[in-house]
Amino acid sequence: MIKLFIFLLMTIMILILQINQPLIITIFMVFMNLILTMLMGIMNSSLWFSYIMFLIFISGLLILFIYISSLASNKTYQFKLNYFFINMLIIIMFFMILIFMNKSNFNYLFNLEITPMNLNMFNLNYENNLNLNKIFNKMSMIITILLMNYLLYTMIISIKIININKGPMRMK
């Protein structure tokens, strides 16, 4: 299940790089946000953290969308189905090659099974129940890295969308 979510995240990231329309990019970013928070909920065994992160991401995306849509030009988006299928085929082939050529490292990277020994920190009878979940512990290290990459990726996309020469900039 986790591998499927990570595959969907990577697919959406690659598809976003080829789109120039702010509305479509925002829709893809909302899907990425939803997948990322579901992944965080599965990995953390606590849905409250992922719910709060979902609300934070959505609010940031709404602010970015309002800012970018006021600066971007009003062009109609033409969806090319053949181009989409070719991109999806390339993405699927790339991930299949990645899985088969580097199978041991791929399994090591996504080996996120939670054993009963790792669940001791979620036990309510644990003597330090004030430290239920630390942000930078070993179990949530991958989530933290995913969040950092997500923020970097959002910054790169917003810089890619805002180009002074392609659209109108409101001076007044």
From TrEMBL:
Reading the lineage from the top rank, the first entry is Eukaryota
Alphabetically sorted, this entry's keywords are:
Membrane, Mitochondrion, Transmembrane, Transmembrane helix
Query: Which residue windows are transmembrane per the record?
Result: 7-36, 48-69, 81-101, 139-162
Identification of the protein by name: NADH dehydrogenase subunit 6
